[in-house]
Amino acid sequence: MRNIFLIARREYLEQVRKRAFLLSTILVPLFLGGLVFASVWTGKNLNMSKHIVLATNDAQLASQLQAQLTKDKTSKSTYDILTPVHEADRAALIAQIRNKEIDGFLWITNEPGQTMSAAYESANSGDMITSQILGESLNHVLVRQRLTASGIAAEQADSLLKNIRVETVQVNKEGKESKSSVLTSFFKGYLMAILLMMTTMMYGMNVARSIIQEKTSRIYEVILSIAKPGHVLAGKLIGAGAVGLTQIGIWLVVASGAVGGGVLSAQMSGALNIHLSWVEAVTFPAYFVLGYVLNAALFAGLAATCETEQELQMYAPITTVPVALSFVLLMPVMSNPNSALAIGASLFPMTAPVIMMFRIGSAVPPAWQFAASISLMLLSIWLILLVSTKLYRVGILMYGKRATLPELVRWLRTS
Amino acid sequence: MPVVELAGVTKAYEQKIAVRDLSMTIEAGQMFGLLGPNGAGKTSSIRMMMGITLPDSGAVRLFDQPFTRQSLERVGYLPEERGLYKKMLVLDQLVFFGELHGLSRGEAQRRATQWAERLEIADSLSKKTEELSKGMQQKIQFIGTLLHDPGLIVMDEPFSGLDPVNAALMEKTLLDLKEEGRAILFSTHRMDQVEKLCDTICLVNNGEAVLSGRMREIKSRYERNRVIVEFEGSDAFLQSAEIAEARKFPGHAEIRLKPHGDAQKLLLDAASQARIYRFELVEPSLEEIFIQTVGGKANA
Fold first, then answer.
1. Which residues are CB-neighbours of B38 under 8 A, at least 6 positions away?
2. Which one of B47, B49, B52, B101 makes the best mutation probe of the A interface by having the most chain A beta carbons within 10 Å?
3. Model-level pTM?
4. Average pLDDT, chain A
5. DSSP one-letter string for A311-326
């Protein structure tokens, strides 16, 4: 055990002291933060400051549409009315777009005896958001007009047209109700999947690389004469694995400080509805760490059979299979979280972390399922390490050639 | 008490028998040379001794006990395939090796500093390994092998890559360690080094021991049939019927006599034709013994 600790500590300190660790710890959140900021900023600014002309012969419709469109106080767009209109005006409006005096115009044809039609013309045909807003608002105004025309009072028409939000309430075994939503359950599973995928992608390779380092630096024989191959492998896995957890830990602490306030206020105002029960608070980190270790162990096993990093790259797609599989299963499990498929997927070690988190979000599974899935994960980590150790021990001394599949089987049998 | 004992050890790889029925014993206070051309089975034998591979048959005993990993705690091993963690500070690296061998951090640090001073590389302790020359790295590796005060020191080609000054320093250190009563196994294909340092040898070829025993004893088994003559004047005596082979250099010649060739007769011949400054009948070198023993069968 002492040697595992010593090897893990050496591995950990070496990687944490590298400039690359410091840079990625700072740069990755800056990059992601910048990306989120940029998309929010462009979303807010690109669609909201447009100058649009509403062109129609129906003056009443135009003014009602203008009122509907300017209801949204956050919108910075301006809507002018042009009424009445003639065909010549259309050409003039097009000229105005070309001269960049306006961003676009909505041409509404509403002649008696003709089917009503509307066309949004702008310099940018891909501006789907603006055309969607215009379409929704126009339909809203038209339905309201038709309702009032059929004798319904304006206030009543407004209340009829009001959107309703459907709330989801989760009932547990004791019959207790709690607010929940499919979306937040999905979100929890999704978050686990994203976190696992990120960590596996970012650090799994790191674990593997550190195992191959022993071969390329030719230090393995010195180390193997002192420590058991299993201890070397376990130490490397723990050390390099802990580097990933440290980095994620740093990000989480910084992020919770930065966004914690925002999330809390959103939660309190009801805009965001995330309940983290104590079951989730305990199981989320547990499944995350187990999932991460399982994936890292898989990488370690693959690395044990490779001579160089280039060879390892060829195996990289295999390691994305567990997370990809979890994504595929998420949808069928979502529609029926207690089906045999869902239970099977939450017991299968590769998909257990993601599926279990999703299931806990929608309905807490029975305790035996937790126990079984965690035991199975631990067992598979142990098995992978056992096989990897054998491969590592023999593979390391086969220096100079990559193992073929029959050779791998023979190593496992003979070592 | 034998420190190492191999009894009828055999190891085969896929298409090759690396070691065949090899037996040898190394005692405490002995400098043992494991000799042979490249690919003879030296490293395979050592790997079995270190528990890195297992013999297919035969037994390995260390410190008079059947092999266990526990006994490796008393062994210092410098493999042929060696390396260091390039980005690590030299002192940290040595402390890491010491700790793996069971020393406390403080003790490992103390011993590393002591050894660095002894091998004249104390200035390098605070540097990164990658900043050091190959020879310096070799010395660091050498220290890493000795930190835990092992009773058995196994060195596979320990002098490769060292300049003569550092090689001499290491030779002296190894001789000191031998004097302290440690068993040293020293594997190389450089016969001259073994001849200089070892008192006992085992010569392997194609995985088999072809010659083993105490150096003096082995040498005494071979006839003194090599003559070195320093002379001035005619070299016509080199055509003598007593000579099997003669190599002529400026001012001297190296001669191999025919079996039962008469050196005395040759001396008389030479003296009658040239002025002789030196006429020495020397014992065969280890290299010659090796060539004589394995003939054209060596893999080198």
1. B189, B299, B300
2. B52
3. 0.70
4. 79
5. HHHHHHHHHTHHHHHH
